[in-house]
Automatic annotation (TrEMBL):
PANTHER family (UniProt xref): BLL4672 PROTEIN-RELATED, BLL5781 PROTEIN
Family annotation (InterPro entries): Cro/C1-type_HTH, Lambda_DNA-bd_dom_sf, MLTR_LBD
Gene3D superfamilies to which the protein is assigned, alphabetical: 3.30.450.180, lambda repressor-like DNA-binding domains
Protein name per UniProt: Helix-turn-helix transcriptional regulator
Database matches in CDD domains: HTH_XRE
Segments forming domain HTH cro/C1-type: 14-68
Superkingdom assignment: Bacteria
Length: 268
């Protein structure tokens, strides 16, 4: 796994991002309307980039918004992007849009997490899946990874836990490569060390369709039934705030008619 290590000056940081993106100096220069010579001078510290150049390079390198602030500070400029708490009055439109989306998706599960997978909002479909999870895991702040992979959480009910666990850990590794977050690394180390319980047997009330899925499904036991979901993650386009940039809305689409019918029966 590649990470961008902190160094003195903005040049080594930009070089780290460029190498992580597997982009040559010439390719970056062409995209940013610059020259390979200038990019080389910036990376070696022989030239101090302007604030506009730092932002332009960060955009073409797809640097996360939080890290763009870090690049600006290392180059001697003030941070450009605010980090407004989600509960701030200025974020009212964002909150309302998210709440409307979550409610509109019911009865299917949907939730919103931040960059460290802390659950910021969820709908009643998620509450259905959390039936039976012990109180100590439901105490705020809720963490989606901990709830899913903890041996007392959802993990014992997930039929395809090895595949789902591997996918979640790989997702976290990609996030760690993008965000130099000690909290995210600590969470990864914690959940990766959880023992993986054996999947539950499918009793007479369960269903196994055997139909191949177009994507890795989450197959979980609930109330004696096998529920199957396909998950999708959405983010905001062109965010201008660190908080908004790090919001992720995960929705779980029923992968079969039985799952959809069961959820509609629970929440007509």
């Amino acid at each position: 796994m590649t990470t961008v290590a902190p160094d003195t000056g903005v040049g080594p940081l930009l070089r780290g991002w460029r190498e992580q993106r597997r982009m040559s100096q010439l390719e970056l220069a062409l995209r940013a309307d610059s020259s390979a010579r200038h990019i080389s001078f910036v990376e070696t510290g022989r030239s101090r980039p302007s604030e506009e150049m730092v932002l332009r390079l960060a955009e073409h390198l797809d640097v996360p918004v939080r890290e763009r602030n870090a690049l600006l500070v290392m180059a001697g400029y003030a941070p450009r992007f605010a980090e407004t708490p989600l509960q701030d009055p200025a974020m009212g439109a964002v909150r309302e849009a998210v709440e409307r989306l979550l409610q509109g998706y019911e009865p299917y599960p949907a939730l919103v997490v931040d960059a460290t997978y802390t659950v910021l909002a969820a709908n009643r479909g998620i509450a259905v899946l959390l039936d039976g999870v012990p109180e100590h895991l439901l105490a705020p702040p809720l963490n989606a990874m901990r709830l899913t992979l903890h041996p007392e959480g959802l993990a014992p009910r997930i039929l395809n836990l090895p595949e789902w666990r591997a996918d979640l850990l790989a997702q976290m590794e990609r996030q760690i490569a993008l965000l130099r977050s000690s909290r995210l690394r600590a969470l990864y180390d914690e959940v990766a060390a959880y023992p993986a319980p054996e999947p539950p047997p499918v009793g007479p009330g369960g269903t196994e369709t055997g139909v191949p899925s177009p994507a890795l499904p989450l197959r979980i036991m609930h109330d004696g039934r096998v529920l199957s979901f396909l998950s999708s993650i959405a983010t905001f386009n062109t965010p201008m705030d660190v908080t908004v940039a790090e919001l992720a809305i995960e929705t779980f689409l029923p992968a079969d008619r039985e799952t959809a019918a069961h959820l509609h029966a629970l929440m007509p």
